[in-house]
Amino acid sequence: AQKITQTQPGMFVQEKEAVTLDCTYDTSDPSYGLFWYKQPSSGEMIFLIYQGSYDQQNATEGRYSLNFQKARKSANLVISASQLGDSAMYFCAMREGASWGKLQFGAGTQVVVTP
Amino acid sequence: ETGVTQSPTHLIKTRGQQVTLRCSSQSGHNTVSWYQQALGQGPQFIFQYYREEENGRGNFPPRFSGLQFPNYSSELNVNALELDDSALYLCASSGEGTQKDEQYFGPGTRLTVT
Question: Using one digit for the tens of pLDDT, what is the confidence trace for A19-77?
């Protein structure tokens, strides 16, 4: 069964606008970590933000924030003030329990930022 | 502090051949994970090495094998290549004891099997 679901295959967003990328997850483990990565066309995965299952507050890293709704099992990424350089594939991923370094990824969302 | 490097960048092999991909971990990281990313999909976890021992494996057949060396660099070996093995292979290194479990990915090796 799919553990990470990203329902938006692609999105267009105008420069300087905010965009929300959806991610839902499925786990019965009370301890887990949620990650967002950016993958430009060059292929390298770039870490953006992390949310632990026990974290009380939503994670923020600069222009990136994670809208964590534990009861709904969702971990949406919000990118504020989009820039042309934000055009890339974005992946949501999960680590279950103590399985450090063993991530399960979603299918990704392609974001294109237009001028 | 050097990042994660992988070699080669691109590789073309014929079905049935064997291939070795290499990964140099970020300085100070003793854990390396390998992922396979088929075109248009998210990465799939292959296996992880921690202090030179395999520490977990995803749903990949035994013809996918690996090694980690004392300097924490790593190899991914694939025997009897199949057309479906064509993918971007990513390695990621991480250190122990960090709550965030942040992994640093290399640029990947793009393997094409013909």
Answer: 999 999 999 999 999 999 999 998 889 999 999 999 999 999 999 999 999 999 999 99
- CA-to-CA distance for B100 and B79, rounded, in angstroms? 34
pLDDT digits (tens, 9 = 90+) for B56-76: 999 999 999 999 998 889 999
Question: Which chain A positions have a beta carbon within 8 Å of B106's beta carbon?
Answer: 44
* Chain A contact present for B24, CB below 8 A: no
Interface with B, mutate which of A23, A42, A44 (most B CBs under 10 A): A44
Q: Which two tokens stand for residue A5?
A: 């679901």
B59 part of contact set with chain A, CB < 8 Å:
no
Tally the residues of chain B: 114
Contact between A95 and A35 (Cβ < 8 Å): yes
Among the partner residues B42, B94, B110, nearest to A100 by beta-carbon distance: B94
Instruction: For residue B38, give how far its alpha carbon lies from the nearest alpha carbon of chain A (Å).
Output: 10
* From A44, A50, A101, residue closest to B108, measured CB to CB: A44
The candidate with the shortest Cα–Cα distance to B32, out of B77, B91, B76, B75, is B91
B1-33 in b/e form (b: 16+ CB < 10 A) is eeebebeeeeeebeeeeebebbbbbbeebebbb
Which neighbouring-strand residues pair with B88?
Answer: B37, B110
